[in-house]
Amino acid sequence: MNARPQKIVCIGAGYVGGPTMAVIAARCPDVQVTVLDLNAARIAAWNSESLPVFEPGLPEVVRQVRGRNLHFLAQAQGVAALAEADVVFISVQTPTKTSGAGAGKASDLQYVEACARLIAEHARGHTIVVEKSTMPVRAAERIQQILSTTQTGGTFAVLSNPEFLAEGTAIRDLEQPDRVLIGGEDPAAVAALKSIYATWVAPEKILTTGLWSAELSKLAANAFLAQRVSSINALSALCEKTGAEVAEVAAVVGTDSRIGPKFLQASVGFGGSCFQKDLLSLIYLCEHHGLPEVAAYWQGVVDINEWQKHRFAKVVQQVAVSGRIAVLGLAFKKDTNDFRESAALAVCRSLLQAGLEVVAYDPRVDGSRFAAELGHPARFSVASTVSAALAGAGAVAVLTEWEEFKSIAWASVQLLPGAVICDGRNVVDRAAVQQAGYGLRVIGSAAP
Ligand code: NAD
Ligand code: UGA
Q1: Phi, psi of 5, deg, nearest 5
Q2: Are 199 and 169 contacting, i.e. CB atoms less than 8 angstroms apart?
């Protein structure tokens, strides 16, 4: 095989597979990149003007390379590409298992295993199989086992190359990563994959480790990040009791160069498809390996996050002056259309269960998909503007830090008199709210 791979296939055209392959294709014009997905509608969207993933900068990159050296194909049409691939990335979902051994904690590897079987069946010659999805430590063993028992003549090397991009900043994270991690035991395969990233990433930022370290490092990095959010959120509750301001505390703590200023923003709780599932996967691994104390330590990070979301929802219920609540922000963070595990899902469920009516607004989230996720409750509706969501509400819950929520002209909105704005992101213009005569409750700040 040529030392520098010429043909790459990625299985899974999601939030990771699509943007990652677009950036590889853009940076490596000599490499042909094919992205496959079972979901034909998602592939059609990747081939359209309306991409399935909202990410700043993504449309520009896709436009540059699509049809040139980046091809999105439905799996049934594109599976032949596997025969010629030098490298195959597995970038499918690894959600928490919902049944069987480890249900509720362990990662469900059924989608990954299906990919391994597909590769074993269709690959020819020597193929480097790359775990891009986040896996439990030693998952590569399972992939190797499937490849060796089902193979039809090919040879394989398995590498771990976890992805560290964050949604909303995916293109920047891919173009200027803090690091790229390649774990593997086969030096030729590691060198081949490294040659792709080395096209645009400085060599000292391409870290190589053993397979198991790479797999565990990804879970560990997400656990550390989630732990920081739970730490500042735990302190936010103490700030509300004592009169300390969580933003001030975070700013002071973050000036210590050993701690650093990032990821100390108190919030209504972390969301997204990964933090909770990766923490649960880590907890399961600890329990499985007979380390209950370690499992309990990380469980605390999950528990604080659950508590924070419910604590916030309770405040909204308590302060509302009517049964109609405006929810601003459904995405799990700004600059994404992703609402998987968002704090908004938990808060809306809690408000609806309490018998309240919810009118929601988000600039990017597809409201009908969000409503479907909630089970289409009668008392949930979606407004197309901030002012429409606010009209007649007795309380407002700000759940995503979208820029437009920072400059709402509170004096000209039509909330009920005495309505209270509950800011779960510390983004609302406090002076404007006070001047308009509405109440205000901010996470990590004592009630006036
Ligand atoms: P996603 O659900 O957006 O995309 C996964 C895609 O894989 C789906 O489109 C699905 O149809 C497809 N798929 C599933 N099984 C398939 C199969 N057998 N053949 C072909 N296609 C198949 O998921 P995602 O957010 O892109 O995450 C993928 C992985 O990357 C996860 O393990 C996640 O933990 C990890 N990760 C995600 C992020 C993120 O920001 N979303 C960041 C880093 C790592
Ligand atoms: C996170 C990690 O940051 C990525 O490195 C990782 O690749 C990814 O998970 C993954 O494995 O999926 P992501 O979930 O996209 O990325 O977004 P983050 O910016 O990490 O935010 C996660 C959640 O934490 C959001 O709900 C965000 O609002 C919340 N958060 C973040 C806070 O509440 N406070 C903060 O200070 C930072």
Answers
A1: -60, 140
A2: no
* Atom 31 of ligand 2, nearest CA residue: 263
Q: What is the pLDDT of residue 448?
A: 79
CB burial of residue 322 (10 Å; 0-12, 13-18, 19+): middle
Tell me: the pLDDT tens digits for 13-49? 999 999 999 999 999 999 999 999 999 999 999 999 9
- pLDDT per position as a tens digit, 406-426: 999 999 999 999 999 999 999
Instruction: State the Cα–Cα distance between residues 19 and 35, nearest whole angstrom.
Output: 11
What fold characterizes domain 275-442? Rossmann fold (3.40.50)
Beta strand segments in 176-220, E:
180-183, 206-209
The pick from 9, 10, 11, 15 for probing ligand 1's pocket by mutation, whose C-beta has the most ligand atoms within 8 angstroms, reads 15
Domain 7-209 fold is: Rossmann fold (3.40.50)
Overall pTM > 0.90: yes
Q: Where are the domains of the chain?
A: 7-209, 275-442
pLDDT class for 333, splitting at 50, 70, 90?
A: very high
Identify which ligand lies nearest to the alpha carbon of 79: 1
